[in-house]
Every structure is written in structure tokens, then in C-alpha cells.
Structure prediction request, 213 residues.
Amino acid sequence: MTKGRAQAFLDATVVRRSVVQIKAETVIPEERIVDIVQHAILHAPSPFHVQSCRAIVLFNDKHRKMWDIAKETVLTTMPPPVFTSLEPKLKEYRGGYGTVLFLEDPKPEELLPPQLQNIMSKNRYDHSNGMNQFIVWTALSVEGLGCNLQHYQPHFSPETLEEWGIDPSWKMRAQLVFGTPFGGPRGGEKTFKPLEERVRVFGKKGVAANGTS
Prediction:
């Protein structure tokens, strides 16, 4: 690969992996974690710059409280075999140091002109929210924390919003759990399908008409 000024950023994307073996400790100050989340919320792109992504950062006992809510909701709403399969995972997440909740606030879209609202789709907001998640996940990984991204919102979103007095119209999209890692990435070393099957290039000098080099 030809290297240029973006190489540090590209290297950071390699560091970002799912790490579930994490401890209730942090290798960086809490304030640094908050700074990273705020940076993402400020600078991640959004459709027509509506800035609808929201984040809630939970540390220590607040983090554990949230996963207690998740466990209780799963216990009371899911069949016993499903709860039995999920309980060890919920325990793992609770064992971390903190969680960043990513949500969407629908109100900014309502301020757009009607003609723009008519062409908007939910996917656009999900794409924007995903970029916020990616920025925070990558940055925390580079700082030395282990992270894993979860999607348990159907199980505990209303209770969580109520617990911290959050606007009930906000829709939860993901939960990024973090802590000091004591194990490697989930799945071990990555394997990759051939790039020739996944990337096609047209118009570049020396590239055949079918998009291969």
C-alpha cells in the first residue's frame, strides 16, 4: 500500500477490534474519554448537518446500573433458554469500566424544510450514528482501551432513558462498552477475503476494463 499523510488514521482503523475481555479499569482519565465522545459528536457528518446524534457516557456504578436494567428486562421479557444464553454476555458487559450510549434525537429533522424531510430516510441517520460510533470506538482503542459494540436497545431503552431523565423521544442505537483489556480481540487474528472480489476500480491507468489490475 502506498503510504501518505492519512496513514496514522488508517493504522488506527486496524487497531479497532471487538474486545470483550475487559476489566472495570481504565488506562486513560475519564475526562479524556469524555473529550473523545464530544469530538465525535462535534465532527462526525450528519444529513444536512442536522446533528441529531446524542451520546450518554456512563462510568462505574452508573454503567453497572444500566446493565442491571438490561439483565432484568431480558429476564422478564425473553424465554428462559434465551436468557440463559445471554446472561454470561450481560455479565461480561457489566464487568467493564463504562458504556457510551449512542442515540438519535428526532427533533432536529423536524426543523428541516418539508421538502428535505420528504427525501430523508432512517438509513441516513443510522449511517451518521454509525460514524459517531466508529470514531469513538477507534479512538478509545488507540488510547489502549478494549471496546465492544452492542445493540441491546429493544431490551432496556425506555427504562434506561427514564433512569437518567433523558428525553423519551430519543431512540437508542448502540452501546459501546469499554474497559482495560485482559484478553485479545474476539475471533483472534482476522482473515480476509481477496480484495479483488470486493473492490473494483475503473478509469485508473493500467486497470483493465473489468475493474481488475
Remarks:
- The mean pLDDT is 88.
